[in-house]
Structure formats: C-alpha cells, structure tokens
Design brief:
Blueprint lengths: L2 H47 L11 H6 L6 H20 L7 H8 L2 H9 L15 H10 L1 H5 L1 E4 L5 E8 L25 E7 L2 E9 L5 H4 L3 H22 L24 H4 L5 E6 L3 H10 L10 E5 L1 H8 L11 E2 L1 H4 L12 E3 L2 E5 L20 E8 L3 E16 L4 E14 L8 E8 L1
Parallel strand pairs: 1-11, 5-13, 6-9
Antiparallel strand pairs: 2-3, 4-12, 6-10, 7-8, 8-9, 10-13, 11-12
Helix pairs in contact: 3-9, 6-9
Length: 442
C-alpha cells in the first residue's frame, strides 16, 4: 500500500471513529434525558403517595401531628379531636381556645404539649387548628371506592397542565460499519411521545343546616356524627361523579338535570368508555362475558394488577353466583381463599375474577335500560365496569375547608364544607380505558 492509500485509509478510519464517537455521545445524551424523565416521574409518583394530603405549609411543630397522615391510634385520635374543635369553633364563631374542648385537647396529649414546647417563644400558646386533619382527608378517600384505586397529584395552580410520556422510545437494529462513512446508514432516531393533561378544579361542597340556637352543650355530643357525615358526603360526591359523571349539555341519564349536580363536574367511567369497549351482556352473566369485557380493553387489559371491576350489589351477587357446586374449581375467588397477603390487595375488595379485584359501589346504577342509560321507562338493568386504574388520576387543588354563616331571615346557621379537585384520563379518551358490560338484569 503506497503513502496515498495509507493516508486515505487513515482518514476513513478517523471518520469512522468520529461517527462512532458521535453516535456514542448522542446515545449517552438520550440515556441521560430518559434518566432525568424517569427520575421526575418517580418523584411525582412518590409525591402522590406521601404528602399529597398536606393542605398547608407545616410551619409549626404541632402541624406535623395534625396535618400529616399517621397510623398510630393516639395520633389518629388527636387528629379527630382537632377536627371536632375546628367544627365547634367555626359554628360558634369563637376562638378554639375559648371552648370547653380545648383544655382537654391541649392537656390530654403529651406529644401535642411537647410540640408546643418545641416552638419558638410565645408561638406555642398561639397554635390552634385552622384546617381539617390528615385523618379526615384520608377517611374521605378511604370511604370512596374509586379514590382507593387511582393516584392523586397536588395541583400547584388552576388550571394545571401535567406533561406525561405518551409513547416509548423505539429500538432499531444498528448495521455494521463495513463501508466508507458516507455509505453507512445512521442509527435511526426516535424520541418518546408526550402529551399534556390539563386539570381544572371543580368545587364539591356539603351544606348542613342547624335550625335552633347553637351553644356548646348542644353541639359537643353531635361532633363525631357531624365529622362522619362530612366524610361520607364528600366521598359520595367524588364516587358518583367518577362513575356517572358527564359534562355534556344533556346528561346521559335523564334524571340528572340540575346544573349543580355533582355528576356534571367531569366525565366519569361510563362517559369515557368508547363504543368498542361496551359489551351487551344479554341480561345474564358468565365468565366468558366478563372476559369479553377485558378483551375489549386490548393493551389496557393485559395486566390484572392494573385493573379493577366496579359493580353494584346486584352485579356482585351475580359474579359470586358464577361459582357452582358442579364446577371443577371456583371461577371467582373470595378473600377467604386467597388471604390478606395476595399481591395488590385493595382494602374492601369483595372477590377476584381472573385475579382482578372486584369492588362494590352503591353508585353503580341498577335502574338503567337495556342500553345502559337511565330513561325512566325501563329501570331493571345494571352495568359492570372494568377500569384501567393507571389511566386516571385525581388532581387536588384545595383540600377540605369549612365556613359558616347565619341566615337571619330563617334564624338558621349554615355550615358549608368544600373541596376543589378534578379527575382526568391520562391516556387518550379514544383508547379503551374503561370496559362496560351493559344490559344486565338487576
């Protein structure tokens, strides 16, 4: 090989080396980008599962006791008492420290006294409950079937746009570099697809009316009842809207006509289900029909751990009835069969079909027609819902707050409790995120 050929060969090798270095650098940059995106997604996931229930800045040692979730029974009791004092002082329009309950609350718990002592000089005496406790927020979520199965995120603004990964990167075969650089094809590029989901908070509220003159002795005995009533009312509002919500001008159910009905807050499971994921059950239920609903979800129906059945009492009875004394094995497994240590156990699940949890909700309607909507004529049909849990998320803008007012014309006191939140699909609503089995005899 002469000098000219050697020079050309060296240049080719150098060019190839440069291309390899460039490809390697681009690959490392793409890996770093994906690593950062993954870390951010994990940060959001952890954030959703830990302190998302904290409704205010924890600036005082006492705040840690009241406004952060705890599994300790004494802490839970302390938080419940804090809620009762908040309700009482709001109704009476009195400083919490002036109520009869305050002395027992402040002096009856050593951890609270220690937290007050740890505060800056003079601040401990000034601390009073100003918001509902973490225990009440947790109980609202636990009282709702649907709130248990979906993640939540705190909305830092309203509206809040959440960027999410819509599709993954694609791997391609890389050809061997056996030719001159200009003839070697580049590694095919791809980038993860992204989409934006916008949360716009809606206010759900509960109003309680007191028609007699209020004093502390009258209110104290009913405080636990009031607290529980608030929890159940807010939970019911969330649950019925997630299942039956429809923001169309005309709701799919003809008895939802009030513009202030909670079921007009956002689109729920029934509204989100696309036609191809709705299965006519023909009046009766079978394992094959349940599997046909799962099949209609396509890629969203692959992993049982990401799915959940939502049924009414009639649907649950019919699912449990699939087991037969003549069958070689149980088609439906109940908790006594699989025990508390099964993977992805959901508190309150009634049984499992193909390892998918079955949850029962009173808000799954059993007065529908054969098309799966309410028309007021045919009212003896129900539905069975299969939802892909990871495809939906709650957004919390403002957690539970309390206000009161007097109506001098009726001599009544009004107690109003509200929260601001939204519920959105994270994947395109043209995809089969929810399966519906309709025309099932109720």
């Amino acid at each position: 090989m002469d000098t000219k050929e050697e020079t050309l060969s060296g240049e080719i090798q150098k060019e190839i080396a440069n291309l390899v270095d460039k490809a390697w650098t681009e690959r490392k940059e793409e890996e770093e980008k994906l690593r950062i995106e993954k870390e951010e997604a994990e940060r959001l996931r952890v954030e959703r599962k830990t302190d998302y229930s904290v409704a205010k800045t924890l600036s005082h040692p006492c705040d840690e006791l009241i406004y952060k979730s705890s599994k300790k029974s004494d802490m839970i009791e302390l938080q419940q008492k804090s809620d009762e004092i908040l309700i009482l002082s709001t109704l009476l329009k009195r400083d919490p420290r002036e109520t009869k309950l305050w002395k027992d609350f402040k002096g009856g718990h050593s951890e609270l006294e220690k937290a007050m002592a740890r505060s800056v000089s003079g601040a401990g005496a000034e601390w009073i409950p100003t918001a509902f406790s973490a225990d009440l927020i947790d109980r609202v979520r636990m009282a709702s079937i649907v709130a248990k199965i979906h993640d939540r995120i705190t909305m830092p603004s309203n509206p809040y746009t959440l960027p999410i990964v819509g599709s993954d990167s694609v791997a391609y075969r890389v050809p061997e570099a056996t030719d001159v650089p200009e003839n070697v094809p580049k590694i095919k590029a791809s980038r993860p697809g992204t989409r934006k989901v916008t949360f716009s908070a809606t206010t759900l509220g509960v109003r309680v009316i007191f028609s007699e003159e209020l004093n502390e002795d009258i209110i104290i005995p009913i405080l636990p009842f009031l607290r529980q009533n608030i929890i159940l009312a807010l939970a019911a509002g969330q649950e019925t809207t997630v299942i039956n919500g429809d923001i169309s001008a005309t709701h799919m159910d003809n008895d939802v006509t009030d513009a202030l009905d909670a079921r007009k807050s956002w689109n729920g499971y029934r509204k989100t289900a696309i036609p191809g994921a709705k299965i006519d059950l023909g009046g009766t239920l079978s394992l094959e029909k349940l599997r046909s609903i799962k099949k209609a979800l396509r890629k969203y129906g692959i992993y049982p751990s990401e799915l959940c059945w939502i049924v009414g009492t009639s649907g649950l009875d019919q699912i449990l009835g699939l087991n037969s004394s003549t069958a070689p094995r149980d088609l439906v497994l109940t908790p006594d069969k699989y025990g508390p240590n099964i993977t992805n156990l959901i508190e309150g699940e009634q049984c499992r079909v193909d390892n998918i949890p079955v949850m029962v909700s009173e808000h799954v309607r059993e007065d529908l027609n054969a098309s799966g909507v309410r028309d007021g004529v045919t009212v003896n049909k129900t539905i069975i819902i299969l939802v892909h849990r990871r495809s939906f998320m709650f957004g919390d803008r403002r957690l539970v707050t309390i206000k009161t007012a007097e109506n001098i014309e009726t001599d009544q006191t009004l107690l109003v409790v509200t929260q601001r939140l939204d519920f959105q699909a994270l994947q395109p609503t043209t995809d089969p995120l929810v399966g519906i089995g309709y025309n099932l005899n109720s």
